[in-house]
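User: Can you fold this complex?
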Amino acid sequence: MAISPPENKLWWKEPLSGVEITWVGIAFLWGLVMFGTMVSWHFVGKQNLSNETYRTTPDAFGEKVEAMVERFQVREEGDTGVPVVHPTPGSDVYMLGRLWEWWPVLELEKGQNYRLHLSSTDWQHGFSLQPQNINIQVHPGYDMVLTITPDKAGEYAVVCNEFCGIGHHTMVGKIHVVDKK
Amino acid sequence: MAVDTQAPSRGFSGASYRTCPETGLKVCSQAEALIKVNAVVAVVFLAVGGFFGLLVALTRWPAVHLLPADWFYLLLTAHGADVLLFWIIFFEVAVLYFASAIILNCRLAAPKWAWLAFVLMVVGAVVANVAVLQGESSVMFTSYVPMQAAPHFYLGLIVFAVGALIAVFVFFGTLVIAKEEGSYEGSVPLVTFGAITAAIIAVFTIASGAIILIPTFLWSVGYISHIDPLMYKVIWWGMGHSSQQINVSAQVAIWYAVAAMLLGAKPLSEKVSRMAFLMYILFLQLASAHHLLVEPGVSSEWKIFNTSYALYLAVLGSMIHGMSIPGAMEAAQRRAGFNNGMFEWLRKAPWGNPAFSGVALSIVIFGFLGGITGVIMGTEQLNLIMHNTLYVPGHFHATVVGGTTLAFMAITYLVVPLIFRKEIMFKKIAQWQPYVFGAGISGVSLFMMGAGTLGVSRRHWDIGFSDAAMSFDYPATAFLMMGLNGISAILASLGGLMFVLVVVCSVFFGKARTPESIAASPTLPSTGTAETVTTYGSEKHPKLPGTVVLVTVFFVAFVLYYYVNWKYLSEVWPLS
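Assistant: Here's the predicted assembly.
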């Protein structure tokens, strides 16, 4: 029994049960298939996370965001006072997480590429794009760059899904995706 | 005490023993006392932490929305610490002492150190709870920097970890004593081997915890100016995830133990089962990288290496146990005469015995709900559509609650009569308990994963965003899922309450086991027929058609659900 020492002291020399060794083989091969799927998605799939990250500081990142807002602001989001920016397609766009807002609101064109920079100026936040359900961790001190291609027009919310204190559940931002002008 | 067939005898080195009337094992009285106190304190933390969990679930039920936001985050932090850490580790210490001193028939090493370990663990756990309940440490169980908790929150965890480390070394010491005093012959039993696996991983886990929590404590009191948030996460998960591997190892050891004790099942192959445990030691720690799949600053190569073969070889270990244990049960049952058709062995298993039904449900919930989803979440790209959504707690409520907690509950139904030597009270309630708890926690797990698939954030007080400047409406189905989750949590809590009621009443008010009651209802059924169950060697193995069907169903479910998730991923915005 499993609660007493093996009766056969040379247990490592016992032959294996056919059913068991077959199962081990299948499980091992399935692991190889999953490994292959993950690697090959980098070549054939369209959803892969970038490896591009830079060290930054809250001040340095904040300045870049301000510069973008100054240059590309088109209006304010409703009565929230948060600027909406409409940056040039293909350009670097920034979104900043801080207690407790995503700043600013982005307006992007459908089918265009953007280099989206994410960072935080205080604690960690979670960039959760809804209803797409794309979820990315945002750290202070790290500027993560993703190339995104919004492929459907509409209004998207950015929910914070990393706990960031008592106002965490009020931290919602927006991304508008519009048809090309 | 009346059951002792002989007065406690003084053995070597002054240790005292009794002889167990049911198993004939020599039971070291110090080991027995320490198993009792650790198990009792574990159940206290389960009750407290489980109650907090119920309040959290009722708050997340939008129609109920029980707690205010500050209390929600506070009790969510306490819930995580109390059940994920304190309930489980106290119980695991009891399991370690059981798997060494009791199973190996020897005395416990350094009982004074074991008592010190117990005191430190209690002090640490209480201090951490006080820190959280004071309200300045609502940082969640993960306590990611730069969010800061009160210094005594970190200190409590550190003191608890030191205690746990001492307990692990008492376990190792006991193994050395058993070997030196020749209390067993040949190799250690498989269950002890599983416990050794858990203990080795525990050392790694606690070391990782110390490496990150000590500087974080110093940071909280102002001696260190900065802790890098990414470095914190890499090392913290060396503790946070590895601690779950302790659970898996301990829980699988219990699966083997209960199968052996109740059915007389022997592993199909010692070699394969031990290799599977060894894979946990070698690979599971690396797999903690799957918590960092959407972080900045870690490369795809690093993620793929750590979460593919490092992870899959560990998963292979679990898949082996998942086949070997039902296989061993089938073999034992068939030799005991339940040989009709594909599944008579399963139908005629002791489903009315909560120790057996608890383990059976634990295997199914852990494998189907916890295991498959864990592998999928640990896939580099798929994590993008799951990270920090409710899918994550949905997954780990299947592994840690449906798997580990249910397995621990199951063996408690054997520990009470064998170690506490008390009759189980309220037998009907005990009989139903694993089913109620298992159904409740399966619901919790499934509905949270459902909500997570729809994007609902974990650790979130208000998915209606009523106080937010900008708003967003999750689909109505997500709200339905949260309601069903709340109902399931009530059911699971009822199952938890039944467990606590049965165990506490039996331990403190139960009738002592007497030779007559043991003869009338032995805890361990005679395995006279099963004793001859397996002779090793493949040609002597019985055919196992039932197990083949069960693992085939599992495998098909795994493959289908894996590719369904790739389909979901392919529909989101292209990104690179």
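Chain B is about 65% helix and 0% strand. Confidence is low (pLDDT under 50) at residues 1-8, 528-539 of chain B.
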